[in-house]
Write the structure tokens for this entry.
Amino acid sequence: MNETLRIQQSHRSIRDYQDTPVSDAMLDQIIAAAHRAPTSMNAQEISLVVVRDAERRARIAGLSGGQAWIVKAPVFIAIVIDFHKTDLGVRKAGQTQLIHESMEGFGVAAVDAGIVLGTLITAAESLGLGVVPIGSIRRNPQGMTDLLGLPPLTFPLVGLCLGHIKDDMPLKPRMDIGAFRHNERYDASGYAAAIDAYDTTIMDYWQKIGRSDGTSWSDNLGNNYKTVYFPQVRPVAAMQGLLNDK
Ligand SMILES: Cc1cc2nc3c(=O)[nH]c(=O)nc-3n(C[C@H](O)[C@H](O)[C@H](O)COP(=O)(O)O)c2cc1C
């Protein structure tokens, strides 16, 4: 196995970090890697806001529901949908941008943001750093928008904590790969058995790492997916001018 595959197949989220800062040289390399990521139509409609200031990270932690690792990790990178940038180009071309009012717009930006997130993760892990993505910035997207100074046609989609690892974690098991990879045609016939097996596996994992509050995959999703857990996404995105009615 080569080094890139080894790093990718060793991914685990890290939520405990040393005080040691991440050097500018490391951070520049990580961001340069994500800057090269593919982007649909070469739109480059993603921007990053790097937050290193401890007081601002503490405010992000508060907005994200009090996640202590955002305070501990010395670097937080917010991944922002940026149809403000593209609007400038569209206007320059004498046209009126409409894509930000569509499902396609939010979808394509979410895909590009995900590629940026994944690239940041691999780059950071290749330097021995630990990371954890933070979707909970969507808990209070208006607060994040204000904190980051985001203009209309932008939206804070996801963040990433980065830092030197203090307490490492074992790999979190995944559902059987047969419930992930389908050959030629989609086939859900093995799902029920894979879910049963995984519910047992994940409970064993929680026990192994001493997490008495750990729930099965099914119960976890049952608790979270029975509601729209970040209900502010739609209204705040709409206030930012990002609609999904086209
Ligand atoms: C888009 C995205 C958002 C996430 N948001 C959070 C978050 O807000 N807080 C957190 O602690 N972990 C968050 N995670 C980490 C997941 O919980 C983690 O990836 C998952 O449990 C699998 O564990 P692993 O990364 O250690 O393999 C997020 C992961 C992704 C990909």
